[in-house]
Amino acid sequence: MAVVLEQIVSEGLAQLSYLVGDDKAGLVAVIDPRRDVAIYLKKAQILGARIIAIIETHIHADFVSGAHELAVRTGAPIYTGENDAYTFAHHPVQEGEKIELGTITLQALPTPGHTPEHISWLLFDQKQGDRPIAVFSGDTLFNLDAGRPDLLGSDETKQLAIALHQSLYEKLLPLGDRVELYPGHGAGSACGKSIGDRRQSTLGNEHMFSPVFSHPVQADFLHWLLDAMPEPPRHYADLKKLNAAGAPIKGGLPLIPPLSPEEFRQQMSQEGVLVLDARSILAFGGGHIPGALNIALQNEFPTWVGWMVERTTPILLVVESERDLMLVSQHLFRTGYDMILGYLHQGMTSWQNAALPLQSIKEWTVHTLHQQIENPTLTILDVRSEQERQKGYVPHSQHRFVAHLRDNLAGLEPFQPVATYCGTGFRASIAASILQQNGFTNVINVPGFWTAWQVANLPIEKTDNESTDNK
Ligand SMILES: [Fe+2]
């Protein structure tokens, strides 16, 4: 063996980091490390290699970077692009600058667009001549998508979009079709609009199949890129600041203490404490702690915690199992939630056995909702995004995007029934729990919603008020 190239996947965030180098020479670099850095240290140790370089392709917005933590643990320098926002010790690179890792060389290729300081890195292998064999493209180019240029605010979006077009067409594409592509994210990340399933690709594959490369004219590209771009998750701006400053050093994942129902109740009574219930929407609907917020543990969990919970909020957890506790604690750590007070020991079983109060949410099928559609006392609340709403909605429904619901309750009647719906029931359950937190007494969720509504061929209305028979 000589060449080391390992991709490390962080599920949920769909974040991809890399260990790359030469194990014969015993030298490796880590590209875009996540916050729990033990995995890189362990892998390097198994290879008998030393981590001598830490690379940040750009200032990340969707997760807490482990670069700072890894630098403290290894003493390796952090290589970045040029940006005055960085306030920790780092090494800003110039175009063409190299990091030598035995027979492997990484070479900096600035590719601004997703962010101004973005650097992609070319990979050269001495045994394969003087042309790059691969590119680590960070958030410039993904499978079937490019990095969104709108995360620094509307003033800079157009300029960054133009820079992105140049980076893609003038820097990456000329590298040649055979160059392998190792991006910073896979499908499910909100750093792109619609990232494809493949976690690695080639420039040739993207050249042939990606919409990114079917818009060579700049104006067309900008139109395609910025059209129907969803709103960036609320926590992105905050995480960018945290990553520019360097996240606090923690030494690893925290141990979250188990709490008895009585201890849990005491902690709950403190000012500002949030009960975060990560169980499934059906379990939450069946019975939960009054005032709890339901964000079910599935792939979207970290993004929706980011949308709905301030990073400094003290959190008490309710989970289904020890395994779920581990996954939830990883997600929260990786997105910068460091105020986890504890979890309910033995879950809701211990709570119900202690004769403590329960709240529930009614669950309706789409058929029940359809029968109630003309009920004048029922409010039907569509909590999906604007873009989803535009494609069609339930007749007589109101639209309030779940991310803004807490500040957008005016006009809703707390003592009348409110049925929430989204794509699957996941965001509708978040919305239902927010309504209950705000004193709504008759809240209904419709699990499986949009999929089930279409399967059942129920009526859909379009923005231009044109009713359809769900064609
Ligand atoms: Fe990013």
Summary keywords:
alpha/beta, six-stranded mixed sheet, Metallo-beta-lactamase, Chain A, 471 residues, disordered C terminus, Oxidized Rhodanese, domain 1
Structure, explained:
The chain has three domains: about 5-245, 4-Layer Sandwich (Metallo-beta-lactamase, Chain A); about 260-355, 3-Layer(aba) Sandwich (Oxidized Rhodanese, domain 1), CATH 3.40.250; about 360-470, Oxidized Rhodanese, domain 1 (3-Layer(aba) Sandwich). It is globular. Helix 3 (about 155-170) crosses helix 5. The chain has about 475 residues and is α/β, with parallel strands linked by helices. It contains 15 helices and 26 strands. About 30% of the residues lie in helices and about 20% in strands. The strands form six sheets. A six-stranded mixed beta sheet has the order 1-2-3-4-5-6, covered by helices on one side. Strands 7-8-9-10-13-14 form a six-stranded mixed beta sheet. The protein has a five-stranded parallel beta sheet with strand order 15-19-18-16-17. Mean pLDDT is about 95; it is low at about 465-470. Bound molecules: fe (ii) ion. Fe (ii) ion binds near residues 58 and 60.
Quick synopsis:
By secondary structure, this protein is of the alpha/beta class. The chain has 3 domains: 3-245, 4-Layer Sandwich (Metallo-beta-lactamase, Chain A), CATH 3.60.15; 258-353, Oxidized Rhodanese, domain 1; 362-468, Oxidized Rhodanese, domain 1, CATH 3.40.250. Strands 1-2-3-4-5-6 form a 6-stranded mixed sheet, covered by helices on one side.
